[in-house]
Amino acid sequence: QICNQHNAEAPNLEQVFHRMAQTEPNLDHDISWFLLPSYWAKMVVALISFLCFANSYDGDFVFDDSEAIINNKDLRAETPLGDLWHHDFWGSKLSSNTSHKSYRPLTVLTFRINYLFAGGFYPVGFHVINIILHCTISVLMVDVFSILLGGLQFSNKGRRLNLAPKTSLLAALLFAVHPVHTECVAGIVGRADLLCALFFLLSFLGYCKAFRENKEGHNFSIFWVLVSVILGAVAMLCKEQGITILGLNAVFDTLVINKLNVLELIQKLLHKDKSLENAGLLRKGLLFRITLLMSGGASILYIRWRIMGTGPPAFTEVDNPASFADSLLVRAINYNYYYSLNAWLLLCPWWLCFDWSMGCIPLIKSVSDWRIIALAALWFCLIGLICQALCSEDSHKRRILTLGLGFLIIPFLPASNLFFRVGFVIAERVIYLPSIGYCMLFTYGFSLLSKQAKKKKILAVAVLGILLINVMRCALRSSQWRSEEQLFRSALSVCPLNAKVHYNVGKNLADKGNQSAAIKYYREAVRLNPKYVHAMNNLGNILKERNELQEAEELLSLAVQIQPDFAAAWMNLGIVQNSLRRFEEAERSYWTAIKHRKKYPDCYYNLGRLYADLNRHIDALNAWRNATVLKPEHSLAWNNMIILLDNTGNLAQAEAVGREALGLIPNDHSLMFSLANVLGKSQKYKESEALFLKAIKANPNAASYHGNLAVLYHRWGNLDLAKKHYEVSLKLDPMAPGTKENYNLLRRKLEQLQKKGG
């Protein structure tokens, strides 16, 4: 009888949930779209998201990857793991005044794991993980959108029902193929946004699990609410935006779980209506859950603030010019213009750029500027959506629009300049999470159009066309992110007024040895931004190498005048002044550089060269010794010490320094060569020969290596071997100084020996 009773009750429960599902309009009913089982829908989303970004898998380290990965000591095994919790995203101490305060230890930890498994800085592994993360997030979006668009309902077995399979698939596809995501996926530094999004979504889905046994909001699992808070904290440890999921969970609870009418609630609060309890505000569990979320969020933010230490980071005017405007009105207008541009990137992601700073978007300084239209359009749309979200009689529409706006706006708040100054104008990576709200609103708009349209298939074909265009745009943009040259050049047409774009193109050309072309772009960068000290410094360096010393000095002097603590420019100015034989000024410039950067081995090295030119040998040795203390692998400083000691007859000291250097840098052939010369002069011929041969094996085309080994054999009496290496040296460099004379002396000696033998 018990068994029969169970069978009789089960259908009734299923019918209850069926009726609950039917109480709201079904978005899927009116759209002409694919209906796939959940498993196949997720497979399709995963495959298409993979196809969009697959061609970025073998890309290089580009743009910010150099600082966040290659130059970040936190990735290396010798750095204690504990340091990750005290350093920012770029490897600097959080307590430092120069730190950006971007605290993302879990993201850096994944970089470190990538580095250890790859055995070095090989970008393929880094890129593959990014692609996998985006595919995983896109698959999770199927479940997230099914809840946001179809509501949260469970079967009697606790299984969540997908009440909007078609629209959730469409929204997930729109998210998966959105071109604005390319920076996050194809740029390795975008790992922070991907990990943040992953735990952001897991936190949301975890919060939904709290209501698996829910009946009218009374029963819920505290465990899953706490798990959601913990996952929100993990998301924030990947990137700061992650904390916003706690606010979104509260909004979701209010609208979906408790089905509150926000406008009605506000009106009752304003009028102090005694029926407030009936409105659902004090419904059992809601305030408790929101208290858990808010107290958890406050605790996380407090801990984050304590770790950050000295306060917000210091950014410059070129990073975010609007935030430095004197007028509050100008700041407000430009911030809103930036919001409109972010909205446009979501609507039409065709013009994408790796950097939007440094004049890319000139400030709006007057209400007569035609760009004010963009602000008006943005707020016209937002106000219209907000009015519908609050005032519509359709509770289903209110819920979807409010959630869509919530997911669009709330994750964007940390990048909005409202709470603190950010270090960018526009950053495509920060739109990764807000695009969830955009995809939701787009899909809802499509369902409303389909409901009104007579030819639904035409609309479906149009949406398919949008998806296809986005896939192609993603593939094209991913290919541009594969190398710095393509990435930087792609920005020239999007942001021709951006000095940083021209600077980066110039730097890329200079690194490839094309100095003439690099000069052109550096000059344009300085023209666009006359205070761009890094462009001046790099241009001054190239001009110095081309022996255009006068202009180089002018540029570097201007750079240190604009930024007096620019240590690299002071050092380069010293090098130019040294070349102009203005030694006292050069010495002052070097010491100024060291004053602003205490640990500056290259500057000590150049200071040593200056002292050597002035025959201040003790000072030169001390300067080079400082360089090697700060940077033990500084080969040039070691070499110069050996050579100076050798030239001044201090062979024993030169030998000791050479052996110390080779102990630290055992595979440096130039050090082998210098020490071999010293040993040869000390008549340690066998050891000297071994080092010469080892150096030649490492660098067989160095004429001087063969020439000096020939001199060793000449002294040692191995004349045939001496002849052989003299000939190799002259073949490699017919003009090698002294080699031809020594070779001729050897030939005469061999002829004399032959005559005596005859």
Features:
dolichyl-phosphate-mannose-protein mannosyltransferase activity, TPR-like_helical_dom_sf, mainly alpha, 758 residues
Mean pLDDT: 88
Instruction: Please tell me what the overall shape is.
Output: elongated
Radius of gyration: 34 Å
Number of helices: 33
Gap from first CA to last CA: 127 Å
Strand order of the largest sheet: 1-2
**Approximate strand percentage:** under 5%
Structural class: mainly alpha
Structure description:
The chain has 758 residues and is mostly helical. The chain has a domain at 193-309. Helix content is 66%, strand content 1%. The protein has 33 helices and 2 strands. Strands 1-2 form a two-stranded antiparallel ribbon. A hairpin with a 5-residue loop joins β1 (153-154) and β2 (160-161). α5 packs parallel to α8, α9 (222-238) packs parallel to α12 (286-308) and α30 (685-698) runs antiparallel to α31 (703-716). The radius of gyration is 34 Å and the shape is elongated. The N and C termini lie far apart (127 Å). 42% of the residues are buried. Mean pLDDT is 88; it is low at 1-23. Belongs to the TMTC family.
